[in-house]
Amino acid sequence: MNKVSIKAPAKINLSLDALRKREDGFHEVAMVMTTVDLADRIELTLLEADEIKIESSGGFVPLDDRNLAFQAALLLKKTFNIKKGVNIHISKHIPVAAGLAGGSSDAAATLKGLNELWKLGLSLDELAELGAKIGSDVSFCVYGGTALATGRGEKIHHISSPPPCWVLLAKPPIGVSTGEVYRNLKLHGLEHPDVEGMVKAIEEKDYDQICNLLGNVLESVTLKMYPEVKHIKEQMMRLGADAVLMSGSGPTVFGLFQHESRLQRVYNGLRGFCHEVYAVRLLGE
Ligand SMILES: C[C@@](CO)(OP(=O)(O)O)[C@H](O)COP(=O)(O)OP(=O)(O)OC[C@H]1O[C@@H](n2ccc(N)nc2=O)[C@H](O)[C@@H]1O
Ligand SMILES: Nc1ncnc2c1ncn2[C@@H]1O[C@H](COP(=O)(O)OP(=O)(O)O)[C@@H](O)[C@H]1O
Question: Which CATH architecture is the domain 3-158 placed in?
């Protein structure tokens, strides 16, 4: 085998709470994350030469050691003293710097693909632990599915999948820096979402309660910095989404829908003023 092709799905945060700032500068979080069927594709080709090459079609991503997929390959090479190389091709479909963990998912897919290509024999748990060195969201992306993530996001507790539903993603034409959003977060006086309640609602497959409990403390920063995100939220709700929330640090807003006909109506309404709109399904498991 000298080639591997792997899907790298996007995530959304159904609940995101920040509890405190830690000594290491990161925030202690509690988040419920789930994957959706909007995905990049990573193709890895074995190179006999000792080098990492990276190329991408689609969205604009750095094609050097700033790329998180490149960093994943480098980490495995250094950790296991691998003398072979790899060509990484990214077919980019997930919007970049959007709150959908596109880069983290590319890194996770690269870890999983190289585990096969370089015959490393690592478990998912071992890959997730390595992934945490690249970014807080990479561990979750190694497993996918649905999870409660704690610590700085790297401690993963698997939970059952939410009931099937449609998700509409709408991204205004701005990129948001996760670091900047966390830096501007004021922990005092925050309205904290009920993360435990969200886990329970998912376990009980209670769609209405999932809609009631959507919450993300990072909205308090991003919606102020970028009023267009607030506008998209309001429009999506007005047009008829069952519930609406910003994903991660934003700026992507997602809406949940039980009925496809309604999803279609809101999709059409949003396309009038928002260029990037995607109708997808929860992957769940
Ligand atoms: C907000 C979330 C929610 O899922 O996702 P995105 O919006 O990025 O998709 C994550 O917490 C983002 O995870 P990730 O994008 O991997 O962040 P990292 O590269 O680890 O960190 C970027 C910067 O964000 C801040 N950061 C990140 C995670 C955390 N728990 N506390 C923090 O304060 C730190 O300043 C860090 O330097
Ligand atoms: N493979 C990649 N895909 C997307 N972004 C990447 C990738 N590698 C590095 N990046 C950089 O990571 C940052 C965050 O991108 P991304 O993971 O898409 O967003 P988010 O952290 O909001 O979920 C951007 O500055 C982007 O340039």
Answer: 2-Layer Sandwich (3.30)
